[in-house]
Amino acid sequence: MRSNLSKRIAIMVVMACVAMSAYAAESAESNSYDAALEQLKTLVGEWDVKDSPSSVTYHLTGNGTTLVEEFRGRRGMASVYHMDNGNLMLTHYCSAGNQPRMRAVAYDPAEGSVKFDFIDVTNLSEPSAYHTRELEILFQDKDHVQLRFIGQEEGEEVAVAHSLVRQE
């Protein structure tokens, strides 16, 4: 009887440890994406798009909880970055007229990169129309950032990169 009780206690202890480990991993991932948003917030200001007449402005809204990115030029577009219950989210208001939503799937502070993957898209004119499916942001240093968009059109992958340089 005593042996049975010991086994039950041991099983409960193991289950509690597994649950705490899962919570800690989830919490660490959430904190990681909080840190990613904090790094994205360092973009606030004016940027030039290298080899292009376009510029990009970053500003905060929502009492500092949301970062807005606005591309200005021939084909304006915007992206909005914010947290949603531990997930770093992005809605991209594309010059193609649709709005892909993405979630951060990787953040590497040592490398200075944040990667977003597709969740869904609104206002897509037809399934084969262009829409962005991935975005990777690479922080090269405080004044140089690269945005790598990967989209899809007619079933083919379309990659576009923008090198940004902070205005002085």
Description:
With 168 residues, the chain is an alpha+beta fold. It has one helix and ten strands.
Outline of the structure:
The protein has one helix and ten strands.
The radius of gyration computed from the alpha-carbon positions, rounded to a whole number of angstroms, is 21 Å
Tell me the span between the first and last alpha carbons.
Answer: 76 Å
Average of per-residue pLDDT values: 87
- Residue ranges: pLDDT <50 for 5 or more in a row? 13-30
CATH class: Mainly Beta
Helix content: 10-25%
Question: Which features would summarize this protein structure in a list?
Answer:
168 residues; single chain; 10-stranded antiparallel β-barrel; alpha+beta; globular; Lipocalin; 1 helix; 10 strands
Write the layout of secondary structure elements.
Layout: H1 2-41, E1 45-49, E2 55-61, E3 66-72, E4 77-84, E5 87-93, E6 99-108, E7 113-122, E8 131-141, E9 144-153, E10 156-166
Antiparallel strand pairs: 1-2, 1-10, 2-3, 3-4, 4-5, 5-6, 6-7, 7-8, 8-9, 9-10
